[in-house]
From TrEMBL, chain A:
PANTHER family per UniProt: ABC TRANSPORTER I FAMILY MEMBER 6, CHLOROPLASTIC (PTHR43204:SF1)
Origin superkingdom: Bacteria
Every ABC transporter domain range: 5-256
InterPro entries, per database record: ABC_transporter-like_ATP-bd, ABC_transporter-like_CS, FeS-cluster_ATPase_SufC, P-loop_NTPase
Protein name (record): FeS assembly ATPase SufC
SUPFAM superfamilies per the UniProt record, alphabetical: P-loop containing nucleoside triphosphate hydrolases (SSF52540)
Record's keyword terms, sorted: ATP-binding, Nucleotide-binding
Family, as annotated: Belongs to the ABC transporter superfamily. Ycf16 family.
Molecular function as annotated in GO: ATP binding; ATP hydrolysis activity
Automatic annotation (TrEMBL), chain B:
Pfam family, one: SufBD_N
Recorded family membership: Belongs to the iron-sulfur cluster assembly SufBD family.
Domain of life: Bacteria
Protein's name according to its UniProt entry: Cysteine desulfurase activator complex subunit SufB
GO biological process: iron-sulfur cluster assembly
InterPro entries: Fe-S_cluster_assembly_SufBD, SUF_FeS_clus_asmbl_SufB, SUF_FeS_clus_asmbl_SufBD_core, SUF_FeS_clus_asmbl_SufBD_sf, SufBD_N
Domain SUF system FeS cluster assembly SufBD core: 226-468
Location of the SUF system FeS cluster assembly SufBD N-terminal domain: 160-218
Length: 260, 497
């Protein structure tokens, strides 16, 4: 099997800001394989470690891996810095995109795209060609070009922030994207745009890991597998039909079974 | 979550930032013995072939200086300076009138090269014939290069003199335009203004003199590259710029200095005089040696810069990007005397390592309807400490005067400090004074977000810092804005792996 991502017995903790040298374990042995071309979904109760998993995979400095391994396209992902992971093709759509006051959005997008292109040995885009590309994509994503002139995520509405994430994802052409509750707080139109963004990237070379609480995003994106993460471990894996079942029953039964 | 960057590797890098432009030119120096007394002042005056009145002026300042003590109110710490352990005069042995490139000391040309002075300007500096006609897309810039204490070359003289503009070393102005110098020297910054201005008035060796006659818009940006070069040489530059009625001038001052172990003292004085409807724009990019990672060495920069809007509707604008020096003590100020006159201060001050900066401005509103704007951006990294200190004073006659002040501080890491000390005094109830201040940090979350998008930490910091400063950077003339942007990146370069 040609797995793009291979997570083995992953344990990770988050640095406690209030106490020195204290690290609270969140992930307690995650195993997950994602083959190229597949879309996987992670669902699970609040506090089960879904966002932690996305941060650990993308290399957030506040999280420490204490055990286990992650292989991404055959290389040791955990040995790479966050920007090296981005260059290697990993993208994280943030649950709460960060504001960068004073940094022009178009300038940020171009710096980002060119950093990644450079790292991948591709030619950098000049401002004219970049602007052409970004205008085209913005139109596709119903993303007002006015947002390109504003500072990164500053004063953006929740929906605008999420669309900005999708625009970045589309520009960076990742081979693996993690969407951390990108659908939360979106209206139906915005939801469809996010779904189109993901679907537009789908190919045999592209995989994604979608973290969500809701069935409704999955009406637009057909996943291959759905995993349930609870208490730091994947306790159940099923097909696309699992999400409807969970919506009807909740996590209670599965979590109870796992505890038993 | 907006906690400070605590990555030990990152913080270590912040401290070990190395100075890129540390080099020393081997040129024979003509140097006075260490120490300061009336004989040394006489020697300086003789070497500069000065008239008697100038010597008297210096001696008067020296006697004032003897009665004064260094100011101690700034938020800076340094060992006491032994003023008797400094050389007060050093000049490269000048070949007579370097009129072609071959005649100029190749060491000097290499120095210009390392400073990044464009080839054309180097050629002009060296006085190569026809150099001024070389095609160049950039707007012409005239440079009065101060190499240690003597102006080595002055350019564009002819073009400027056709417009009636005087732009020359102040030592020449003392000889050639004594009436102008006598009238204005010390008229804005009196000899006894403070300890360092008294010292400067006694021993200044060179600097620039600019006079823009009535109604003349100076046809080019005027530029001086300052450079401290000799060991243990205090530099005491003196600059005097006068814009007569309806005249306009933009003056650029840029600095880099070679790496040293000894602390070097720099106590310059800059005086600006803007008459009715005149406009003086004074821009500085300062990148002197800040000291090593332990805070050893580095330039002590105690500068007094002040402009007076003497006529109605006159305008003076200070823009500065300060990234260097171990200690910066500097408050470019405006005295708004003329009715409706305008004072502006745009500043970016970056401190890293063990640097200390206490900088800001003073806006003294005297006339009616006078306006001032202060925009100060402070960036602190490493173990550095940065203070904005600003005075806005509204005098009784300043009816309807207005001031707007914005001070923003950006912190990188958790061992640096930023302080804002505004002094506001008003003696007229019709005035309007606004003060805004913010302090923010480059958060770990912001860096991570940028890195997740493929930017290195270095690029991320550069992007955020430039974004933070852009309102000030856009005030710089084009030629300087690019240089300043690079300098910001270089100054914080060590801050990441």
């Amino acid at each position: 099997m040609n797995n793009i991502l291979e997570i083995r017995d992953l344990h990770a903790c988050v640095m406690d800001e209030t106490a020195e040298n204290s690290c609270k374990e969140i992930l307690k042995g995650v195993n997950l394989s994602i083959p190229a071309g597949e879309t996987h979904v992670i669902m699970g109760p609040n506090g089960s470690g879904k966002s932690t998993l996305s941060y650990v995979l993308s290399g957030h400095p506040s999280y420490n891996v204490t055990k286990g391994s992650v292989t991404f396209k055959g290389q040791d992902l955990l040995a790479l810095s966050p920007d090296e992971r981005a260059a290697a093709g990993l993208f994280l759509a943030f649950q709460a995109p960060i504001e960068l006051p004073g940094v022009n959005n178009a300038n940020f997008l171009r710096t980002s795209v060119n950093s990644v292109r450079k790292a991948r040995g591709e030619e950098e885009l000049d401002p004219v060609n970049f602007l052409k590309l970004v205008r085209e994509l913005s139109k596709k994503l119903s993303f007002s070009t006015d947002m390109l002139k504003r500072n990164v995520n500053v004063g953006f509405s929740g929906g605008e922030k999420k669309r900005n994430e999708v625009l970045q994802m589309t520009l960076l052409q990742p081979s693996f994207a993690i969407l951390d509750e990108t659908d939360s707080g979106l209206d139906i139109d915005a939801l469809r745009i996010v779904a189109e963004g993901v679907n537009g990237l789908r190919s045999p070379e592209f995989s994604s890991l979608i973290i969500t609480h809701h069935q409704r995003l999955l009406d637009h994106i057909q996943p291959d597998y759905i995993h349930v993460l609870a208490k730091g471990r994947i306790i159940h894996t099923g097909g696309p039909e699992l999400s409807r079942q969970l919506e009807a029953e909740g996590y209670g039964r599965l979590v109870g079974e796992a505890d038993a | 979550m907006t906690k400070l960057t605590q990555d030990p590797a990152l913080l270590k890098q912040l401290e070990t930032n190395t100075y890129k432009w540390g080099f020393e030119t081997q040129i024979e120096m003509d140097m006075a013995p260490k120490g300061l007394n009336e004989d040394i002042i006489r020697l300086i005056s003789v070497r500069k072939e000065e008239p008697e009145w100038m010597l008297e002026w210096r001696l008067k300042a020296y006697r004032l200086w003897l009665t004064m003590t260094p100011p101690d109110w700034g938020k800076v710490n340094h060992p006491n300076i032994d003023f008797q352990d400094l050389h007060y005069y050093a000049a490269p042995k000048k070949k007579k009138g370097p009129k072609s490139l071959d005649e100029v000391d190749p060491e000097l040309l290499r120095t210009y090269e390392k400073l990044g002075i464009p080839l054309k300007e180097r050629a002009i500096l060296a006085g190569v014939e026809g150099a001024e006609e070389m095609s160049d897309v950039r707007a012409p810039i005239a440079i009065d290069a101060v190499f240690d204490s003597v102006s080595v070359a002055t350019t564009f003289r002819e073009t400027l003199s056709e417009a009636g503009v005087i732009f020359c070393p102040i030592s020449e102005a003392i000889k050639d335009y004594p009436e102008l110098v006598k009238k204005y020297l010390g008229s804005v910054v009196p000899q006894g203004d403070n300890f360092y201005t008294a010292l400067n008035s006694a021993v200044f060796t060179d600097g620039s003199f600019v006079y823009i006659p009535k109604g003349v818009r100076c046809p080019m940006e005027l530029s001086t590259y300052f450079r401290i070069n000799a060991k243990n040489t205090g530099q005491f530059e003196r600059t005097l710029i006068i814009a007569d009625d309806k005249a306009t001038v933009s003056y650029l001052e840029g600095c880099t200095a070679p790496q040293r172990d000894e602390n070097q003292l720099h106590a310059a004085v800059v005086e600006l005089v803007a008459m009715e409807d005149a406009f003086i724009k004074y821009s500085t990019v300062q990148n002197w040696y800040p000291g090593d990672k332990d805070g050893k060495g580095g330039i002590y920069n105690f500068v007094t810069k002040r402009g007076v809007c003497r006529g109605d509707r006159a305008r003076i604008s200070w823009t500065q990007v300060e990234t260097g020096s171990a200690i910066t003590w500097k408050y470019p100020s405006c005295i708004l005397q003329g009715e409706g006159s305008i004072g502006e201060f745009y500043s970016v001050a970056v401190t890293n390592g063990h640097q200390q900066a206490d900088t800001g401005t003073k806006m003294i509103h005297i006339g009616r309807n006078t306006r001032s704007t202060i925009l100060a951006k402070t960036i602190s990294a490493g173990k550095s400490d940065s203070t904005y200190r600003g005075l806005v004073r509204m005098l009784p006659r300043a009816k309807d005067a207005r001031n707007f002040t914005e001070c923003d501080s950006l912190l990188i890491g958790d061992q640096c400090g930023a302080h804002t000390v505004p002094y506001i005094e008003s003696q007229n109830s019709s005035v309007k004074i606004e003060h805004e201040a913010t302090t923010s940090k480059i958060s770990e979350e912001q860096l991570f977000y940028c890195q997740q998008r493929g930017l290195s930490q270095e690029e991320a910091i550069g992007l955020i810092v430039n974004g933070f400063c852009k309102d000030v950077l856009k005030e710089l003339p084009m030629e300087f804005a690019v240089e300043a942007q690079q300098l910001l990146q270089i100054s914080l370069e060590g801050s990441v792996g």
